[in-house]
Design brief:
The complex is a heterotrimer.
Chain A: H1 2-36, H2 54-61, H3 63-95, H4 102-114, H5 117-131, H6 137-161, H7 166-173, H8 178-207, H9 210-215, H10 223-232, H11 237-272
Chain B: H1 7-58, H2 64-69, H3 71-78, H4 88-100, H5 103-116, H6 120-131, H7 138-145, H8 152-160, H9 168-173, E1 176-178, E2 184-186, H10 194-225, H11 228-243, H12 246-257, H13 262-269, H14 285-309, H15 313-321, H16 326-354, H17 358-363, H18 371-381, H19 385-409
Antiparallel strand pairs in B: 1-2
Chain C: H1 2-16, E1 26-31, H2 34-52, E2 55-60, H3 66-74, E3 81-84, H4 86-95, E4 117-118, E5 121-134, H5 146-149, E6 159-162, H6 168-175, H7 183-187, H8 190-201, E7 207-211, H9 216-222, E8 228-232, H10 233-243, E9 247-262, H11 270-280, H12 283-288, E10 296-297, H13 300-303, E11 325-326, H14 329-348
Helix pairs in contact in C: 4-14, 6-8
The chains are: A mainly alpha, B mainly alpha, C alpha/beta.
């Protein structure tokens, strides 16, 4: 009895200790790289001899990095728009109560997320070479749309799972065209899912390196592609500066998605009330 | 007893049929609408994703380059018995093909033949260079270039390389080949690497999955037990790495783990290691396991957490009030109930790990590279599409089988992100 | 505060850049990265852009021909000028993926030193593949011979070698006692190749990093990641001169080689590339590069213009060529692909 009592008291402490250690393992590497980007000297050791913004200046003044940033933004924005439209339409289709062989169709539409990216990259390289899409931003946008769309399908399907399709019937019985019904009833309700799917698609494209490695030329270099050659050759602190900016960026994204999800949950609650 | 059909019965029957028809029509219309909405993405993916991968996979059995470049030789060799020295007609046909083909095509054939016999490449290129300016008798011209052309051996290799379909690459991906008699046998040990690479890929993925489980399970349990702001904060700390760029996380590990990196300098500062003898934490298996576990951990924590959250704490309390010691309550109630999350997370992590390329390439040594690295190597560095395709096929089959298992156990519609 | 406003300004500017830049003439030059590309930038790219307004985009490669061949085969060439090694130049001519050089625009083949004017590529520098170490790690004297690189008894500690058979196999044979002048006679036989790999076997577990980019070796030495590493001599010179490192080069058994400009077949800016190459083939312009990196020029007329203080650091200095061999273009054009395959299999085992 005594034994088990102490165990019950001990257990939460052990769990806290273990859990915190794992959280530390998850977060520490990301935190550790941030201060190093302000290091005055080009080394990666603590303690740092002095602080400086020179690596940020290098990033913002280097033509190569700026070209990479520009390409990444263009490709990610276009791929996000395309995959959001295609993915949302498909998710609406999949969620219709009368959708045939839903499981198979979903499995196919989600597969770009599951197929190893190297296989997709080599396949796309091989096919794009035949039709002249290598070394073009268009090619990169198309490829990134394919791997980004599944995220939109998943998030939008998830929001639609709780969607009451009777609302659509009600709308049409009140004289709304199907298009109007989607635009004015469905979209506002699934908007959080669409937006968080779009954010996922954006981040997927913005972070994608393997496909870029295969199908992008020097003029289409993206940010991750540039980082890859940086890490592989000489790990300059400019990489740490870029990494810090990207961490900032992902934190913002995460915050946005969290807000959206909370809003969606609140909506769900008010609807069931 | 006579059966009489009253008007009413008939009318009803007719109406039911019409109604069923109408209903079926409506349902078909609804189905069409659903499919129409799905169609744009489906066709897009077929064109940009499915078709390209399919095209690539056909390269794993495709062997048309030899037959396309040497059409006359194919015809001439068709009737050759394979044992005697060929006659002048065959030499002339081969010479005509070499003269007619552009240099880059001959180079492709030479490369292809070199897979069968090392040294064939430079030999054929040399032959092609000389034969372009040669006249009949071609037999003498060939033998003048290399005496081996006067024996059946090279011709047998040439003939072996002729068929338009081949199992050569798929066999090679499993470290096997056909000998001259056509029987399948293991390749020489110094050439056997692929099986090793495939096993290594599975071993690394399994270790990473296990590590993720060991680290992820307690963390998920902690989050599930916590409430309010604490639970939220913990979740956000799991999600932040998930949202952070893969390259950022990988470079962070390079910074941390290198000889004079953060970990080693911290250990030296604490006096735990001699600064001149830093721990070797990177460009080896340790680096790969640490970095991959870090990157894949959120994929383990999130599914386990979402299952744990749905376990009513009442069950555990009931168990202990019925006298079960906490450990056995955990073992016999909590653990089995959280298993769906474990299998979902475990399968997902394992599937994703199988295809890893960037992280092992940056933090691993040559003996830690997984199958993705070799696919990239064959397509990007030595342009051996056949081998790249064969290895892709094996990786793809493994992943798709696991995907089907995942779909069966977890259900793809339960896949949640963020 | 100033810096922050600069940051803000530049980030606004970078957003403005998303609006497509004005069309201008560009040229993509692909080279080997790091200090070498930097020296080309200082000696050639920047002055050329300034004089002509042509914008030069840089790309990097590691000498594996697949990508280059793939571009030509698929007709989607993005590189206008590529810095190649002699083996590539022969192979590219043979297999038809490099354009021939018109030497009438470059002052004729006779303006070049022996072997520098190849049919499909014109050399700009002579470089040496050597090995180097951090002298501060060897208080009792460092290694002096090629055999020392492979001698882990005498000099225990991690090494780095190039992740390619070229020069790595030659070094193994020389360390195993083959006379540098005989190295290709031995390597040309299957037994010789086996012998080289057998020698490499003896230090395989001590090779911590297999480098692929020329910028890696000085970095690996500086980080203390390895004790000694093979390298291209100019990279080590750069680290000594510009970062004050105490690195020493071992010239014993060095492999002398050329780097050459080549033009992939079907390059998008062929004419601009011709002009750029002709520009660098002016003795005064070519000699400029030796101010930035310790590589020797290939035009006879440029040799006299090299600054005197760098002469002893060039791979061609008499002191450095006593036990040198010249990397054989013919051998590597013929055997690069099959030895690369074998090398990579060996690495994976």
């Amino acid at each position: 009895m005594n034994h088990s009592l102490s165990f019950t008291r001990l257990f939460p402490i052990v769990l806290w200790f273990a859990g915190s250690a794992v959280v530390l393992f998850l977060i520490a590497p990301i935190i550790a790289i941030v201060p190093l980007s302000f290091n005055a000297e080009p080394f990666f050791t603590y303690p740092m001899p002095g602080l400086s913004l020179r690596w940020y200046e290098e990033f913002f003044s280097s033509e190569v990095w700026q070209l990479a940033l520009k390409n990444s933004i263009i490709v990610a924005v276009c791929a996000t728009l395309l995959s959001t439209v295609l993915g949302t339409l498909a998710a609406i289709g999949l969620s219709r109560p009368d959708c045939p062989s839903r499981a198979t169709l979903t499995a196919i539409l989600i597969s770009p997320m599951i197929v190893p990216v190297i296989v997709s990259a080599v396949g796309i390289y091989y096919a794009f070479a035949a039709i002249g899409l290598l070394n073009t931003l268009t090619g990169l946008v198309l490829a990134h749309t394919a791997i980004g769309a599944p995220f939109v399908v998943i998030t939008v399907t998830a929001t639609l799972a709780s969607f009451d399709h009777n609302l659509m019937r009600a709308a049409s019985s009140l004289g709304a065209t199907p298009f109007e019904a989607v635009l004015r009833i469905m979209l506002p309700i699934i908007a959080p899912g669409v937006v968080s799917g779009a954010l996922f698609a954006f981040v997927t494209s913005f972070d994608e390196v393997v496909i870029a490695l295969f199908i992008a030329g020097s003029e289409e270099r993206t940010l991750p592609r540039q980082m890859w050659s940086g890490v592989r050759e000489t790990l300059s602190p400019t990489i740490a500066a870029v990494a810090t900016l990207l961490i900032l960026f992902s934190t913002l994204f995460l915050a946005t998605v969290q807000c959206l999800q909370r809003r969606a949950e609140r909506q769900k609650l008010t609807r069931t009330d | 007893m006579a059966i009489t059909l009253t008007d009413e019965v008939v009318r009803n029957a007719v109406d039911t049929a019409a109604l069923t028809r109408r209903l079926r029509g409506l349902r078909r219309k609804g189905q069409m609408r659903a499919l129409l909405l799905i169609a744009p993405l489906m066709f897009f993916l077929l064109a940009i994703f499915v078709l390209p991968i399919g095209m690539l996979l056909t390269r794993s059995v495709d062997n048309s380059e030899v037959a396309l470049t040497l059409p006359n030789t194919v015809n001439a060799l068709a009737s050759w018995d394979g044992a005697t020295v060929p006659d002048e007609a065959i030499y002339a046909a081969f010479a005509a093909d070499l003269k007619a083909s552009p240099r880059e095509d001959v180079a492709e054939v030479a490369k292809r033949l070199n897979y069968y016999e090392t040294g064939m490449r430079s030999m054929l290129l040399k032959t092609a260079r000389t034969v372009r300016n040669a006249e009949a008798s071609y037999k003498d011209a060939f033998i003048a270039i290399d005496e081996q052309w006067g024996t059946p051996r090279y011709w047998r290799i040439l003939k072996q390389a002729m068929p338009e379909l081949t199992d050569f690459y798929l066999l090679a991906a499993l470290d096997m080949s056909r000998n001259e008699a056509g029987a399948i046998a293991a390749v020489a040990p110094e050439n056997a690497v692929h099986v090793d690479v495939l096993l290594r890929t599975f071993a690394v993925s399994a270790s990473v999955t296990l590590l993720c489980l060991l680290l992820g399970y307690p963390l998920a349990a902690l989050i599930a037990r916590s409430q309010g702001a604490v639970a939220n904060t913990l979740l956000i700390l799991v999600l932040l790495p998930f949202w952070t760029s893969l390259l950022v996380r990988t470079s962070a590990w390079v910074v941390l783990l290198q000889s004079r990196g953060v970990v080693n300098s911290a250990l030296a500062w604490l006096g735990l290691i001699d600064p001149s003898q830093p721990l070797e934490l990177i460009y080896n298996r340790i680096g790969v396991l640490v970095a991959m576990t870090h990157i894949l951990l959120p994929f383990m924590v999130l599914p386990i957490y979402s299952v744990m959250k749905s376990i009513p704490p009442v069950y555990l309390r009931a168990a202990s009030s019925l006298g079960a010691p906490p450990l056995s309550a955990f073992w016999r109630i909590y653990l089995p109930m959280s298993m769906p999350g474990v299998s979902a997370g475990g399968l997902l992590v394992f599937i994703l790990a199988l295809g890893y390329y960037i992280t092992p390439a940056l933090v691993g040594g040559p003996r830690d590279q997984m199958v993705s690295y070799y696919i990239a190597y064959y397509s990007n560095q030595v342009t051996n599409w056949g081998m790249a395709a064969a290895l892709s096929a094996i990786l793809l089959v493994a992943v798709l089988i696991l995907y089907a298992v995942y779909n069966r156990i977890v259900g793809i519609d339960r896949l949640r992100i963020g | 505060m100033n810096r922050i406003s600069l940051l803000l300004q530049t980030s606004v500017l970078s957003l403005a850049m998303i609006v497509p830049a004005l069309a201008e003439e560009t040229l993509t030059v692909t080279s080997w990265g790091g200090a070498y590309t930097k020296s080309q930038e200082q000696a050639f790219f920047a002055p050329y852009s300034k004089e002509t307004g042509v914008k030069i985009l840089q790309d990097e490669w590691d000498g594996s021909t697949a990508k280059l061949k793939g571009m030509v085969e698929t007709g989607q060439v993005t590189w206008d000028v590529v810095d190649v090694e002699p083996g590539h130049a022969l192979q590219g001519c043979d297999e038809g993926w490099l354009d021939e050089i018109d030497y009438s625009k470059l002052g004729g083949k006779e303006a070049f030193i022996d072997g520098a004017a190849m049919d499909c590529a014109a050399a700009t520098i002579v470089f040496g593949t050597i090995y180097a170490y951090d002298a501060s790690k060897f208080p009792n004297g460092g290694p002096t011979t090629m055999a020392d690189l492979f001698d882990t008894q005498k000099f225990p500690g991690p090494r780095a070698l190039r992740k390619a058979p070229k020069t790595t196999l030659e070094f193994a044979l020389i360390a195993d006692g083959v006379v540098p002048a005989e190295v290709y006679n031995v390597l040309g036989t299957p037994e010789g190749v086996d012998r080289a790999f057998k020698k490499l076997d003896t230090i395989k577990k001590d090779v911590k990093v297999w480098w692929t980019a020329g910028a890696q070796p000085p970095q690996l030495l500086a980080d203390g990641e390895v004790l000694m590493t093979t390298a291209w001599n100019g990279r080590i010179y750069d680290a000594v001169k510009n970062s004050g490192k105490d690195f020493k080069i071992v010239w014993d058994g060095q492999g002398m080689d050329f780097n050459l400009w080549a033009q992939p077949k079907g390059s998008p800016h062929k004419e601009a590339a011709d002009k750029f190459i002709a520009y660098t083939m002016n003795p005064d312009v070519m000699a400029r590069q030796s101010q930035y990196i310790s590589y020797g020029p290939t035009l006879k007329a440029a040799i006299a213009k090299v600054p005197a203080d760098i002469l002893p650091d060039l791979p061609t200095a008499p002191e450095n060529t006593k036990t040198a061999f010249v990397v054989s273009a013919e051998f590597w054009a013929d055997h690069d692909e099959e030895l690369t395959e074998r090398f990579n299999k060996w690495l994976a085992q």
